[in-house]
Write a structure and sequence with these properties.
Blueprint (H helix, E strand, L loop, with lengths): L5 H6 L22 H5 L1 H22 L4 E5 L3 E4 L4 E2 L21 E9 L6 E6 L18 H5 L6 E5 L4 E5 L3 E3 L3 E2 L7 E11 L8 H10 L17 H6 L1 H8 L33 H6 L3 E2 L1
Antiparallel strand pairs: 1-10, 1-11, 2-10, 3-9, 4-7, 4-10, 5-6, 5-8
Length: about 290
């Protein structure tokens, strides 16, 4: 992280009129623009994390496994923003309708704390990756009533500066409520996801992944959501004016006919913007199932 220059990183966001102005909408702060995934500094950071993770995963899982890393989002919590908290949920990168089978496939999610000085936190319910969803199946979100049953069992896990946490994505967890003080800098968090399998079958079709990096587009978020959105759907329903104000700092070729920023942002290629450097063979290999 000492070599990661956030000012340079954000200045190279192709989608914005003023890259140093407002770049996201909503307190959660997750980015859904293509530049945030494909800018070279971000790619170097992900590659470095993957290199650190591989021997650790090898030590845990041993032989006979394939690993595939999946491109995930950057989140920036801005000074003065607040989040009321998220209901407990478990993620669903792959199809769990037949029930999870950790002997053949596991998806690990988590995040890297990009701060060099500030601890971040995960609120989760240990052991719940082995428990069925009260609603049946493995839906992404639970009702408030179901989620309330997990609150007494939840624990807060500290993620120190410059550290990464990984967990089975079926672990029930939540985004903690927070209020970011005005006198603190932005809080940066890079979400991480890796797909481990015995078969080497990718989490998603490789043709889709190759197309995403060829066009430098927005990657798939999970099995249900075909792309990482630029903002949450509720933001447009309840804070339409804020979205419109934010849209003024987005270039016209990334807005819809109504003047609002597109929730699914175009790839840099499709928008006619300059592409970043092509992905290297090593980068592509990380995104492909390889023997662990």
């Amino acid at each position: 992280m000492r070599s990661f220059d956030s000012a340079v990183f954000f200045s190279e966001m192709r989608e914005f009129v003023n890259p140093l102005g407002q770049r996201n909408a909503g307190a959660f702060g997750a980015y859904g623009n293509a530049s945030s995934f494909h800018q070279p500094q971000m790619r170097r950071l992900r590659s470095g994390l993957y290199a650190k993770m591989k021997p650790i995963l090898k030590g845990i899982y041993g032989d006979g496994w394939f690993v595939q890393f999946l491109i995930d989002r950057l989140s920036e919590r801005l000074p003065g923003t607040s989040l009321s908290g998220d209901i407990f949920h478990r993620d669903a990168t792959i199809d769990y309708s037949a029930g999870p089978d950790e002997s053949t496939v596991v998806v690990l999610g988590g995040f890297f704390n990009m701060s060099l000085t500030e601890t971040q936190f995960l609120s989760c319910v240990p052991g719940t990756q082995n428990e069925p969803n009260p609603d049946g199946g493995f839906s992404k979100r639970m009702s408030k009533l179901d989620a309330a049953t997990f609150k007494p069992r939840s624990e807060i896990v500290e993620v120190p500066p410059n550290s990464l946490i990984l967990y089975n994505e079926l672990l029930i967890h939540e985004d903690q409520a927070f209020k970011r003080p005005l006198d603190l800098p932005s809080c940066l968090r890079l979400y991480i996801k890796c797909h481990l399998s015995r078969t080497g079958v990718p989490a998603y079709p490789m043709s889709e992944i190759i197309e995403t990096i060829r066009t430098q587009g927005v990657p798939r978020l999970n099995l249900k959501d075909k792309y990482a959105p630029m903002y949450g759907s509720s933001l447009m329903r309840f804070h339409k004016k804020k979205v419109l104000e934010f849209s003024q700092n987005v270039k016209p070729n990334f807005r819809g006919a109504d003047g609002f920023v597109k929730r699914k942002m175009d790839s840099l290629y499709d928008a006619g913007e300059e592409l970043f450097l092509d992905y290297t063979a090593d980068e592509i290999a990380d995104l492909t199932p390889n023997v662990l």
